[in-house]
Amino acid sequence: MLRIGLLTSGGDCQALNATMRGVVKTILNKSKEPVEIWGIEDGYQGLIYGRWHKLEWQNLSGVLTQGGTILGTSRTPFKRLDTPEADGVDKVPAMKRNYNKLKLDCLFMLGGNGSTKTANRLAQEGLNIIALPKTIDNDTWGTDITFGFTSAIDVATRCIDDIHTTASSHGRVFVIEIMGHKVGWIPLHAGIAGGADVILIPEIPYEMENVVKAIEQREKDGGRFAIVVVAEGAITKEEAAMPKKAYKKKVAARVKPSVAYDIAEEIAQRTGREVRVAVPGHTQRGGAPDSQDRIFATQCGVEGALACLRGEFGIMVAKRNNKMCCVPLTEVAGKLKYVDPESDLVREAKALGISFGD
Ligand code: F6P
Question: What pTM was estimated for this model as a whole?
Answer without folding.
Answer: 0.97
